[in-house]
Amino acid sequence: MSIIQLSNVNQYFDKNHVLKQINLEVEEGDFMTFLGPSGCGKTTTLRIIAGLEKPESGIVTIQGKIVDHGEMHVHAAPSARGLSLVFQSYALWPHMTIFDNVSFGLEVKKIPKAEIRKKVELALEKMRIRDLIDRYPSELSGGQQQRVAIARAIVTEPKILLLDEPLSNLDAKLRIEMRTELKRLHRDMKTTIIYVTHDQVEALTMSTKIALFFDGKIVQVDTPRGLYRNPGTLQAADFIGNPSINLIEARSVEAEGMLRTTSSLGQLDFFYEGHQSGEVVLALKPEDIHISRLPSEGAIPCQVYSVLPAGSETLIQLQQGDRGLLAKTIGEVDYEMDSTVWISFPADKINVYDKLSEKLISKNRI
Ligand SMILES: Nc1ncnc2c1ncn2[C@@H]1O[C@H](COP(=O)(O)OP(=O)(O)OP(=O)(O)O)[C@@H](O)[C@H]1O
């Protein structure tokens, strides 16, 4: 059952059309991430769900109740929506202890003191900071303060938790630690989470679903694996690829129901659906390229342009004729610059896009 539904939501700031016909269903228990480049409308969509902004047009439904109806001027207050919010800046009250910071939401609900204590301890326990209960925010690290902010949001046991880039102020190590905590929290509490980020690794590692935004529109809603293996457009493929995906132009013809492509990767056949205009683009992920120092049948010779070791993995920039290709290998490897190597790849891991429409026409089977 969908717990949150957005239908044809539009938002303008002055004359700037920042959300364009947003349609979205969030299922109960989802960890839904809004992913996309800066300024594409993720935060505005989250703020509309939270009730902090009124949409110009469209309908927002939460737990079966219409909370916004742009045309009918219906707008429910944030406090009436049964959700909690955590922002990038943790905004703890500096003059209050961690206990007081977290218990605040319960005090205003007039819950008995002993019960408040139990709930606060449990929320802090969940974030693994129970021992910090009597400290003040200034005595905590940034990561600990962000844990307090999340504890404060979950102490009221909201059915829906909205998180706007909550980890972006933390250093890389803490961010990874917090990702694992948030993932466990989601599993343990079974809360529906909506999470805003422009960091695709964050989105891919934690979410059950990802909504990909570009320029005020949702272009794809998919599982992390679905989005990673089958980005629906060339723009999505380019955004998701990290390091950059290899895009190779090819000519194509239909041959015995298959799409036969001819490019610098040789002749390849693909199952396909949809319209193809004759010119296509092959998308090959760096990690799908296998490099060998010795020639073998079907392998393609390339020159090594440069090798970038990064500890646990190595990026290898190759040159094939006048085209560059990026490969990624797990572990440390070294190749002499300008030496010849041979590459091979599983053709069924290549996505094919129609060049004209930029749409995916041949998917990976996952
Ligand atoms: N209060 C506002 N007044 C005017 N324009 C705004 C306002 N809030 C957002 N915008 C504009 O709306 C667009 C969408 O902004 P939004 O914050 O939703 O993007 P975002 O995808 O969350 O970006 P980021 O990742 O940088 O936070 C941007 O062009 C932004 O400049």
From TrEMBL:
SUPFAM superfamilies, A to Z: MOP-like, P-loop containing nucleoside triphosphate hydrolases
Domain ABC transporter, chain residue ranges per copy: 4-240
Domain of life per record: Bacteria
Gene3D superfamilies associated with the record: 2.40.50.100, Nucleic acid-binding proteins, P-loop containing nucleotide triphosphate hydrolases
InterPro entries linked: AAA+_ATPase, ABC_transporter-like_ATP-bd, ABC_transporter-like_CS, ABC_transpr_MalK/UgpC-like, Mo/tungstate-bd_C_term_dom, NA-bd_OB-fold, P-loop_NTPase, Transp-assoc_OB_typ2
Keywords of this entry: ATP-binding, Nucleotide-binding, Transport
Annotated GO MF terms: ATP binding
Protein name (database record): ABC transporter ATP-binding protein
Natural source organism: Paenibacillus radicis (ex Xue et al. 2023)
